[in-house]
Amino acid sequence: MTKRGLIEEVVKLYPRYSRREAETMVNAVFNSMADALRRDERIEIRGFGSFVVKHRRAREGRNPKTGRTVSVAAKRVPFFKVGKELRLRVDGKVAEADLAAAAE
């Protein structure tokens, strides 16, 4: 799914909002998340997963084309850790559990 697809999904689920309003809302969520990560804050979305910033130390790397050693600077990278519920839903196991619970 792309950002455009997400905006279209919001418009479909909430027809009272225009496409422009939905786009503003989606952009606001993404901007808020990016700002939080920039401030080294952890983002946790229950049932979905969490976003954190990992700090990578400076190191010596290798240029794969030439084989020469190069210096790689320290950096901060965003990292996503999937939540248990999402992992089970993607694997199709939540639907099985729901069916088993409904049968009881």
What does this structure look like?
- This protein has four helices and five strands, in the order H-H-E-E-E-E-E-H-H.
- The protein has 104 residues and is of the alpha+beta class.
- The chain has a three-stranded antiparallel beta sheet with strand order 1-2-5.
- The model has no long low-confidence stretch (mean pLDDT 92).
Note the topology:
Elements: H1 3-13, H2 19-38, E1 43-45, E2 49-56, E3 59-62, E4 69-72, E5 75-82, H3 84-91, H4 93-103
Antiparallel strand pairs: 1-2, 2-5, 3-4
Helix pairs in contact: 1-2
Keywords:
104 residues, three-stranded antiparallel beta sheet, HU Protein, Chain A, alpha+beta, 4 helices, two-stranded antiparallel sheet
What is the 3D form?
A: extended
**Any idea of the CATH topology of the largest domain?**
HU Protein, Chain A
Strand content: 25-35%
Query: Distance between the terminal alpha carbons, to the nearest Å?
Result: 35 Å
Record field, number of beta strands: 5
Radius of gyration: 20 Å
Could you say what the CATH architecture of the largest domain is?
Irregular
| Secondary-structure element order, N to C | HHEEEEEHH
CATH H-level homologous superfamily name of the largest domain: IHF-like DNA-binding proteins
Structural class: alpha+beta
Write down the CATH class of the largest domain.
Answer: Few Secondary Structures
Major β-sheet annotation: 3 strands, antiparallel
What are the segments in which pLDDT stays under 50 over at least 5 consecutive residues? none
